[in-house]
Structure formats: structure tokens, C-alpha cells
Amino acid sequence: MDLKLITQAGDLKGKKVLVRSSCNVPLVNGEVRNSFRLRRAVPTLKFLSEQGAKTIVVSHIGRDTTDTLLPVFTELNIMIPLTWAGTIGSTEYDTALVDMKDGEILFCENLRQDAREEDNDPGLVEILKRGMDLYVNDAFAEAHRNHASTFGVAQKLPAYAGLTLAEEVSGVNKVMNPEKPSLFLLGGAKFETKMPLVEKYLELYDHVFVGGALTNDVLKARGFEVGQSLVSGISLVDAPFLNNKKLLLPIDLVVNGPNGKQVKKVDAVLPEEKIFDLGPETVAMLSRYVTEAKTILWNGPFGNYEAGYVEGTEEIAKVIAKASGYSVIGGGDTVAAVEKLGLNDQFGFVSIGGGSMLTLLEHGTTNVLDTLK
């Protein structure tokens, strides 16, 4: 995919550059818990500052209109000097914009405090573009969302891809034509949105393993008991891929119920139990496939990660980290597991994208990326 890179934009000294970054990071007690996305935001901001551009950074955090980017500003300010500019369009913002010096970076408040952001509202687009010379999208994690700051404004200004976004697209593209043998590991939930992806990669890859809550849908469709486990809103009973020989499923599972936490074979789950994670036999089985693979693609956790069922995900992360094949991983909880284990540098590429990575894998592009070509 040929994107217009910010490095190709010519002389940037004194130019006002609106940058959309991915700063939606987890917060605990008002402090950043995981700074991976913030570290990935630095290269583009550093480049613009060194070129003498006047950089205005916009981003979002959380889903509540009261969520603030102030803790993120504090953390990112340690990595690269920033000036707080408040809410886009406010008096504080307008003053900061007028007073900007070459090389300075303004950091703005959570865009999703304004409902117009997710609606791609023309009014907000006009506010975002006001006074700007060009636009840079460095927010791969939001590259599947047609919002005002990712899509709308890119159609109103000369638009370029940031260094990290370009690197993300390149990293994901490498696994869309895999070297064989190839293995795709897909976790998480919502089979209704991921079924086309599974169907596509069963054609492209030698094996596709379906884990996490996605497993429950397949087991249910095959007639197994899944108890109180999370399932999608669709039935897979007639899905053509259901009995595809390339499709890999767990052998054993970690369940919880009236008898407490147990490891059980897939055909031994009781109606009152709930599936939470992969069992050790499944981890061992997957380890063999991972070791043999020359291309490994992984997105999404294999257990209820937020509820503390992390073992399956973390064990697979360790196995992939040791593998000789080229590996690309993505998804919030997937990356959190890798960060926790200190394994970041042991993969071919670690993406900041979750849903955006899956959208790119399925369609080969997104509406947002198309604005940067």
C-alpha cells in the first residue's frame, strides 16, 4: 500500500500540522498503566519538532465524555516536551495556537468529550482544520473509524501518514501473503464481526486457531455444551468453515462453576459452568504448530484476560516469542500480556491496532487509510 508519508511533505518549518495520534491507553487511579502506544507516538512528533513544525496533537481516551487526557499528557511529556492546549476550539486552545513557536508541540484534550467527533460532524471538522497547513494521521489503532479527526479532516487538508502508521501498515501487510507453513491465532469475542476474517484466512493460511470467546460459538455449533459461557448473537450451525480441516480448536479448557475452577475436555463442560481460558493440552498442541510455522499472526486474548484468566494467553506469548518464524501480534490485551512479560522485542512486529488490524487484514485497506494515498 503506497501512502503519502510526512517525510515527503517538503519544508515544514513554521507550518501548523494537525496530528492524530493513538493515545487511548489504560489508566489506573488516574495514571497510565501501559505506555506502549505513547512510545509509538513519539517518532512522528519528534520528526515534526525537529523539522520546525508547529504541531497540534489530537486524540481520544475512554468512552465517557468526562474522561480526560491530562494523565496521558503528563506521561507523554516525559518522553517529549509538550504544551497543554485544552479543548479544541476553546479560548485556551486559540491562545496557545497564536503563541506557538517553531518546533513546539501542543497537546489537546480528549476529542470524544465532543459527540461530534464520532459523528464525523462537519462543524467539528472545520474547527479541527482551522489555521492548519496540513494533516498527519499517526493513529493506526483508529484507522477503521470514520471520525472527524481520522477521516473528515483528512479530506479537507493535505493529508499524510505518520511514521508509526506507515510502519504499522507495512508490518501487517507482511503477513497477508504468508510464507508457509503459516498459523493464524485469533482470540477475543464477537464472531459476528470476525467470521469473514476466519473464512478468508482459512484460504490464505495453513491453519487458523480460534480461541477466546470465539471458541464457544464453534463448540456450540458443533453440538457441545458451553454452559453459561459468552457466545455471539449469531449461530454458526450452517457455517461452511465449521468442519474445515485447517480450523484448530481447543482440546481442553479452564472452566469455573459450582465446583470451582477446573480444567476439562471440551466435551465435559457442564450446563452450570462457564469457559474462561485454554487448558494445558491446548497450549502444548499450539506450541507444536507455532514451532513449525514460518509465519505467525496473532490477534486477541485466549482467556477472559480482564477477569484474571491470563495463563493461556501468556503461555502462548512465550512460545511465539521463542519461535523462529516471523510473528505479527496485535490487540489490546494481547499487547498487554506481551508488555507484562517483557517480550516486546522478541516478535517480528507488535501492532498498536486491534480492530484496525483486523479490518486491514480482512479488506486490505480502510476508508481512513484511503485518504492518505
Architecture overview:
The protein has 373 residues and is α/β, with parallel strands linked by helices. Helix content is 34%, strand content 18%. The chain has a six-stranded parallel beta sheet with strand order 5-6-4-1-7-8, sandwiched between helices. Strands 11-10-9-15-16-17 form a six-stranded parallel beta sheet, with helices on both faces. The model has no long low-confidence stretch (mean pLDDT 96). α9 (280-292) runs parallel beside α10 (311-322) and α10 packs across α11. A hairpin with a 2-residue loop joins β2 and β3 (31-32). The protein has two domains: 6-167, Phosphoglycerate kinase, N-terminal domain (Rossmann fold, 3-Layer(aba) Sandwich); 174-362, 3-Layer(aba) Sandwich (Rossmann fold), CATH 3.40.50. The longest helix has 15 residues, at 36-50. It is built from 13 helices and 17 strands. The radius of gyration is 22 Å and the shape is elongated. The N and C termini lie close together (8 Å).
Provide a quick synopsis of the model:
Helices cover 34% and strands 18% of the residues. With 373 residues, the chain is α/β, with parallel strands linked by helices. The chain folds into two domains: 6-167, Phosphoglycerate kinase, N-terminal domain (Rossmann fold, 3-Layer(aba) Sandwich); 174-362, Rossmann fold (3-Layer(aba) Sandwich).
